[in-house]
Amino acid sequence: MFGHKARPGGAAPSSEALRLEDVRKVYGAEDNRVVALDGVSLSLPAGSFTAVMGPSGSGKSTLLQCAAGLDKPTGGRVLVDGAELSGDGEAALTKFRRERIGFVFQQFNLLPTLTVLQNVTLPLKLAGRRVDKDRAREILGRVGLGDRLGHLPAELSGGQQQRVAIARALVTEPRILFGDEPTGALDSRSARDVLGLLQEAVRVYGRTMVMVTHDPVAAAHADAVLYLADGRIVGHQSAPTAEAVAERMTRLADEVERQRTSGRAQAGV
Ligand SMILES: Nc1ncnc2c1ncn2[C@@H]1O[C@H](COP(=O)(O)OP(=O)(O)OP(=O)(O)O)[C@@H](O)[C@H]1O
């Protein structure tokens, strides 16, 4: 189980799970300055599944890191579940993250010396919460790993490791789950399984999911796609299909290339 079930028929998106107000992120200083996010504003309802796409370097990972409180924006505000991720200090931010946010990475990031069960209960330990092993076992059963509790990550396939990572992200019942290319290292069948689990976490258990991906098939599992280019949101697509996403991405890549070429021409390089 991924937590308490939402109302029959799916989650009722009544509140806002994530809000970004004019978020900017600038890396470097002076002559090597990079504007990774250039005034991003968005609002995602609770119980929604959003894919974030855009050309390489458009700011997708930076957006996720800032929204999840793993990196600090240079300007603007990030609100998760109505509460601002702000400068109350690193300890407060860590506590906030542990209580309300889950993260799934491309490379799984499991601890190699801990068993599957220990990896999944770790976030509860770190948050100083009761380590409910029955609940962890239940979640691992739900992701199809009920018979692998004592195995080490190296004894599992990539798809299985990512399912452990999903169980680990969900064990604290976070309000919002971020995925940075969670299927990027998986074959297409394992990717489908993982995407099915993420959809279930949203549709049945009312979690909110934000997922960066390069894959139109993965993006088509979301309710909506946000498109980024050069650190700005340049498009939104509801009920995406893989074909429509692929077509939009091709157009976007062409537009970005045209703008960069004309920028170089104006600069005389
Ligand atoms: N730590 C950093 N220091 C300096 N520049 C950075 C840093 N992290 C990212 N950038 C720059 O910020 C911009 C956005 O990077 P980001 O990784 O968010 O893009 P992305 O859309 O996730 O790219 P990709 O699809 O290739 O993973 C890029 O120009 C990148 O070079």
Structural account:
- The protein contains eight helices and ten strands.
- A six-stranded mixed β-sheet has the order 6-7-8-3-9-10, sandwiched between helices.
- The radius of gyration is 19 Å and the shape is globular.
- A hairpin with a 6-residue loop joins strand 1 (16-27) and strand 2.
- The protein has one domain: Rossmann fold, CATH 3.40.50.300.
- The longest helix has 25 residues, at 242-266.
- With 269 residues, the chain is of the alpha/beta class.
- The protein binds adenosine-5'-triphosphate.
- InterPro entries: AAA+_ATPase (IPR003593), ABC_transporter-like_ATP-bd (IPR003439), ABC_transporter-like_CS (IPR017871), ABC_transpr_LolD-like (IPR015854), MacB-like_ATP-bd (IPR017911), P-loop_NTPase (IPR027417).
- Residues 18-255 form the ABC transporter domain.
- Keywords: ATP-binding, Nucleotide-binding, Transport.
- GO terms for molecular function: ATP binding.
Layout of helices and strands, plus pairs?
Layout: E1 16-27, E2 34-45, E3 49-53, H1 60-67, E4 75-80, E5 83-84, H2 90-100, E6 101-105, H3 116-126, H4 133-142, H5 158-170, E7 176-180, H6 188-203, E8 208-212, H7 216-219, E9 224-229, E10 232-238, H8 242-266
Parallel strand pairs: 3-8, 3-9, 6-7, 7-8
Antiparallel strand pairs: 1-2, 1-4, 4-5, 9-10
The structure holds adenosine-5'-triphosphate.
